[in-house]
Amino acid sequence: MNLETEKTMSRPEVSTAPVRKAELEELLIDAEADDEQVQQSHPLVRRPWLLLLGLILVALNLRPALSSMAPLLGEVSKSLGLSAAQAGLLTTLPVLCLGLFAPLAPLLARRFGAERVVLGILLTLAGGIILRSNFGEIGLFAGSVLGGASIGIIGVLLPGIVKRDFAKHAGTMTGVYTMALCLGAAMAAGSTVPLSEHFDHSWAMGLGFWVIPALVAAVFWLPQIGQKHGAHNLAYRVRGLLRDPLAWQVTLYMGLQSSLAYIVFGWLPSILIGRGLTPTQAGLVLSGSVIIQLASSLAAPWLATRGKDQRLAIVVVMALTLGGLFGCLFAPIEGLWGWAILLGLGQGGTFSLALTLIVLRSRDSHVAANLSSMSQGFGYTLASMGPFAVGVVHDWTGGWNAVGWIFGIIGAGAILAGLGAGRALYVQVVSEKV
Known about the structure:
Organism: Pseudomonas glycinae
Protein name: Cyanate MFS transporter
Pfam families: MFS_1 (PF07690)
CATH architecture: Up-down Bundle
Keywords: Membrane, Transmembrane, Transmembrane helix
Oligomer: single chain
Structural class: mainly alpha
CATH topology: Growth Hormone, Chain: A
Number of domains: 1
Strand content: under 5%
Largest sheet: 2 strands, antiparallel
CATH class: Mainly Alpha
């Protein structure tokens, strides 16, 4: 056993008892001291503002490929002659790829470095957007797979980068990152239909437009390739996550809250169109709901890290989410915007807390990167079942009312998992230098 392994294992592990505030502060001081000893010979990134800008621009591109499809789903299906089952698959496939390809992220980062992987996958995402919008039905599905895979890999790497370079402000930085992600989703949901109408009602142009911000993000991320990021450029192997109950609770919370989020991205416009709205109106409601997430995605992690743990915060944001979903589905259409705002406040908090839990339940950036891979890999695979189930239930019943059962079951599961994941504990793992 090498010295690095011994040092990691020698720190006291927390398993069944909550971490008291004094103990948590002592552990954080020890971890920071270890990092500072190694960083003396490997300076951290010299221009953190440039890294912050790059992170924001990258995050802006992690949802447009998903949220831009929903308002145009009916037009795309009609244009290409897609069946209801194929349309349902189109909403499920990218989310499934988020989970299936997430485990590749730590492997690629270990081989090439996280910064190079993010740059390369941004270009892959741009290729998927072009493929999806220009090559008919085959290109539509192939591009959706490529886009989902790209988003899944980048999404796993960013929490580890936040933990590494902004460790003292992890909660705030996670909120900023999530806020940028929500902004990208809102812009795509609200502007894709107007863009397609501007380009002679071409859905291909509406979807293809989002290659531009992906390429812009790649340009601004390029300087990170030449930066030194200290000891964290070393390769570490983390063992024991799959045997840790807390890691599974974080994973289940990530997956179940994400399932509700991707139901909203994939089906909320169709639900609202079924209730009498036009595609443009439905897209604007989705966009408005996601814009509201900007506030709660920034505030929720900050507030949640001020308490002894995150359990109360998780219950509150999940209650807001379920209230908004049921309101959009069943309440009178005249009050729709109020329910959409409630939904946005809830979902902005649920996702940012899920990312915050990855950071808070990890002792260092290596554990955070691997917990991120696990929670998003298994979590998004689980999440993909939500949009698929909505499509199946809608086909069976011919309406949307029965979808409320799906909301309730998934929401209850997310609350139960969150009550476990929100405790002030650390995952028990062994982190060793490769």
